[in-house]
Design goal:
The complex is a heterodimer of chains A (385) and B (132). Chain A is of the alpha/beta class and 385 residues long. Chain A has three domains: 5-175, 2-Layer Sandwich (Aconitase, domain 3); 180-269, 3-Layer(aba) Sandwich (Aconitase, Domain 2); 273-384, Aconitase, domain 3, CATH 3.30.499.10. Chain A is 41% helix and 15% strand. Chain A contains 15 helices and 15 strands. Chain A has helices at residues 5-11, 17-32, 51-63, 92-107, 118-121, 137-147, 156-165, 195-207, 222-235, 264-269, 289-299, 314-319, 321-329, 357-367, 376-384; strands at residues 38-40, 44-46, 73-75, 111-114, 133-134, 167-169, 183-187, 212-215, 242-243, 259-262, 279-287, 307-312, 333-336, 352-354, 371-373. Chain A has a five-stranded parallel sheet with strand order 13-12-11-14-15, with helices on both faces. Chain A has a four-stranded parallel sheet with strand order 4-3-2-5. Chain A has a four-stranded parallel sheet with strand order 9-8-7-10. In chain A, helix 11 (289-299) links the parallel strand 11 and strand 12. The radius of gyration of chain A is 21 Å and the shape is globular. Chain B is an alpha/beta fold and 132 residues long. Chain B has a single domain, classed as Phosphohistidine domain (Glucose Oxidase, domain 1, 3-Layer(bba) Sandwich). Chain B has four helices and eight strands; from the N terminus they run βββαβαβαβαββ. Chain B has helices at residues 26-29, 65-74, 89-98, 110-113; strands at 2-4, 6-9, 12-19, 53-56, 81-84, 102-104, 119-123, 128-131. An eight-stranded mixed sheet of chain B has the order 1-8-7-3-4-5-6-2. In chain B, helix 3 links the parallel strand 5 and strand 6. The mean pLDDT of chain B is 95. The chains are: A alpha/beta (385), B alpha/beta (132).
Chain lengths: 385, 132
């Protein structure tokens, strides 16, 4: 890979150890993936935040870095609500480590807003055809597919390296040739809400890391696309998909010849009741404004009888205090900065009900708890009765 | 004898070869406190990778593996250097984070030349492996 004279100097340590290490990480990835050069990026989303995932080793590495990020950078969810962790039942030892990790990122000027949906907060972070270095799989999928921005799925250290340098290696989904759909997925039936997550869970294992082009009979909303992409990334490793007549790049390419079909019956079977939920958890990926308003309407003036946890970003919560009040007055709990998958708080329940294909996929393996899928309305109904 | 190779992570180190034809997942397969391979049925199960020149085809598994390599280094039980046939990001990033020399794509098949215990220098800066 070609490095400019300035980049060579950074690589060789003329600007200090941290930047040298960052440049070496970017260069090594460029070499591995045959990139021609480094390219400027608009923003970064850094994974590797939850103490549950990165442990003491991660904390130590981040703490040892010096400098400041040079492009807007935001964090992936942490292992707990950074303020309300006691209410989640998080123990003090975990909380202290988690807060240390967040402070270590803050020292590098990373915005300590922990969310998997940065696009719900800062529209200016990702625009059509802009290059990014994002890490969280559902955020990567949304940025590439729904916004038409360009990002590979960065690991935690490579995203942080990109943030400190302001560049990433030019390979993979940064290049037009790798954004061409390779498989058509025809989906039958009129779908809504959690159906799209279910489709993602069904298609993911077949699609693997290809670029699928979906053909739906109904037009999915951006929130439904978010559910589709999150589930596809979790059950396969899809970082970009297109939807005919919906997503911005779908028209650019011819329809792939190879195709698979998904019928309504297989979608319905994803809703099978494996257990009786004692926790209903919504907000995987983090809720956006429209979803927050919808939940506030469903819960206004009512009282939940089961544990109902709702996850979103702190910033959106602060923007919409009336909706948060409507939700918390129903005795549902709103948590920020984290989610049911990355927090150890979910591990003490027997059965978790979710409206997300991604959560349905990860809760059993990451939290050791069985999960069931319901539409948003079914989830609220279960919580109220 | 010198074998040309491709630099992934800078530095140079010498030591004894420990080789395996199995890919290595650092998360879950290597104990970060002791440097001992704990994965059942792995060719290196029970062996210590500490201070060795670790030759393996490539990494696999979770990206958290990069942090495990860093933890091995902090606990003074990391390999002295690593040689891959074809490096992937988990091992590359872990080696750079930890300052462990790493080369890949040696121009001759090292599995045909090297044996466990051979004394070897990995010079990633100058992109070669030397067998003494």
């Amino acid at each position: 890979m070609y490095l400019t004279t300035e980049e060579e100097k950074i690589y060789n340590g003329e600007y200090g150890k941290t930047l040298a290490q960052c440049m070496q990480i970017l260069a090594a990835l460029g070499e591995i993936y045959d990139a021609d050069r480094l390219i400027q990026i608009k923003s970064v989303q850094v994974a590797g935040v939850s103490y549950k995932t990165i442990g003491d080793a991660g904390l130590e590495w981040i703490s040892g870095l010096h400098g400041r990020v040079v492009v807007p950078s935001i964090l992936n969810p942490a292992g707990m609500d950074l303020k309300n962790w006691r209410k989640m039942g998080i123990d003090r030892a975990f909380a202290e480590k988690q807060l240390e990790i967040v402070s270590a990122y803050k020292r590098l000027d990373v915005r300590c807003e922990c969310t998997c949906t940065p696009y719900h907060i800062y529209e200016e972070f990702a625009g059509f055809k802009e290059h990014l270095a994002w890490s969280e799989s559902s955020a990567v999928s949304y940025a590439n597919s729904v916004i038409g921005a360009r990002t590979n799925r960065e690991g935690g250290p490579s995203a942080l390296a990109a943030a400190l340098i302001g560049k990433t290696a030019n390979y993979g989904l940064h290049l037009d040739e790798n954004r061409v759909p390779t498989l058509t997925v025809k989906v039958e039936g009129r779908l809504h809400d959690a159906d799209f997550g279910a489709v993602g869970n069904i298609a993911g294992p077949t699609v693997k890391d290809q670029v699928p082009l979906f053909k739906f009979k109904t037009i999915p909303s951006p929130e439904e696309l978010k559910q589709l992409g999150a589930a596809l990334a979790a059950s396969g490793s899809v970082a970009l998909y297109h939807v005919s007549n919906v997503t911005p790049e779908a028209k650019t390419y011819p329809d792939p010849v190879e195709s698979i079909s998904i019928d309504k019956k297989s979608i319905d079977s994803v809703y099978a009741r494996r257990c009786t939920p004692d926790l209903i958890a919504l907000g995987c990926p983090h809720l956006g404004t429209k979803e927050l308003f919808e939940l506030a309407n469903l819960l206004k003036g009512r009282t939940v009888k089961k544990e109902l946890w709702i996850f979103t970003s702190r910033r959106l919560g602060e923007r919409h205090p009336a909706q948060i009040a409507a939700i918390t007055n129903s005795r549902a709990k709103v948590f920020y900065d984290t989610c049911m998958v990355v927090s150890p708080a979910s591990e003490r329940f027997e059965c978790i009900m979710v409206n997300s294909g991604k959560a349905l996929h990860y809760v059993p393996s990451m939290c050791g708890v069985p999960a069931v899928l319901g539409t948003t309305e079914e989830c609220i109904k279960t919580a109220l009765h | 004898m010198k074998i040309k190779a491709h630099r992934i992570s800078k530095g140079k180190a010498s030591g004894r070869i420990l080789l395996t034809k199995d890919a290595i997942s650092f998360l879950g397969s290597v104990d970060p406190k002791t440097g001992i391979v704990v994965e059942k049925e792995h060719e290196l199960e029970g062996e210590s990778i500490s201070e060795k020149i670790l030759l393996f085809p490539c990494g696999k598994g979770s990206t958290v593996g990069s942090y495990v390599i860093y933890q091995l280094k902090k606990n003074n039980v990391a390999p002295a250097a690593m040689i891959n046939l074809r490096c992937e990001p988990i091992v590359a990033v872990g080696a750079i984070m930890s300052g462990i020399p790493l080369v890949d794509q040696p121009e001759k098949n090292p599995f045909e030349i090297l044996r466990n215990g051979d004394s070897v220098l990995v010079d990633a800066d100058n992109e070669y492996i030397e067998i003494s």
